[in-house]
Automatic annotation (TrEMBL):
Domain (PH) ranges: 35-178
Protein name: PH domain-containing protein
Entry coiled-coil feature ranges: none
Ranges that cross the membrane: 12-32, 44-67, 73-95
Organism from which the protein derives: Hymenobacter fastidiosus
Alphabetically ordered keywords of this record: Membrane, Transmembrane, Transmembrane helix
């Protein structure tokens, strides 16, 4: 078994070094993208802690189903673990699902130096200018230390009654909120930033 495991680990290490090296070299020659979409990397960044919490807690919760009768002490302990795991992970997973449904087909083009802010829905540009903005809701989480604190959104209210919602699934929206600071930005804080 050890004879098989060692070459696999060495090959994995070489492949990871090659990927990392290519990433560094190509990073020198590419310009940073100004088009933001829901990507795998962004979703992984947002879901890392909730998924880790589930990964650690769910094996303990499996004992509810796979072991025989539990004592009162074990039942109380497993219920407490279930409450903690689901209490931390469920709000973040719910927010992520809601944001994904809202912005899965949205692309944000944002270049503040060129004064460009464009939103595309299903690859069609949503026409609006900065002067069309009546107000902007900037909703963030109350506590910066919770699993769901990175979930925030901007809601752009236009003169014609349309509303455009940009979520944290696209990118960190703090620079966009600063860019729109002269457009009647209303900062709001909530425990859960549901849309």
């Amino acid at each position: 078994m050890l004879a098989l495991l060692r070459p696999l680990l060495e090959i994995s290490g070489v492949v990871l070094l090659l990927i990392f090296g290519l990433r560094v070299v190509t990073g020198f020659f590419t310009r940073a993208s100004r088009v933001y979409r829901p990507t795998f990397v962004r979703q992984f960044y947002l879901l890392f802690w909730p998924l880790l919490c589930l990964g650690v807690g769910l094996p303990f919760l499996a004992s509810f189903f796979f072991f025989g009768p539990l004592s009162g002490y074990e039942l109380v302990l497993l219920t407490a673990v279930a409450a903690v795991v689901l209490g931390f992970a469920a709000p973040a997973l719910g927010l992520h699902a809601q944001y994904y449904v809202r912005n899965v087909h949205t692309a944000l083009v944002f270049e503040p130096k060129q004064n460009v802010l464009e939103v595309y829905e299903n690859q069609v540009r949503v026409p609006f200018a900065k002067s069309d903005l009546v107000r902007v809701e900037w909703v963030t989480c109350v506590s910066p230390r919770l699993f769901w604190s990175n979930y925030h959104f901007l809601r752009l209210h236009l003169r014609d009654g349309r509303t455009i919602t940009l979520t944290a699934l696209l990118t960190n929206l703090m620079p966009v909120a600063e860019f729109l600071r002269n457009a009647n930005v209303e900062p709001k804080q909530r425990w859960f930033c549901f849309l």
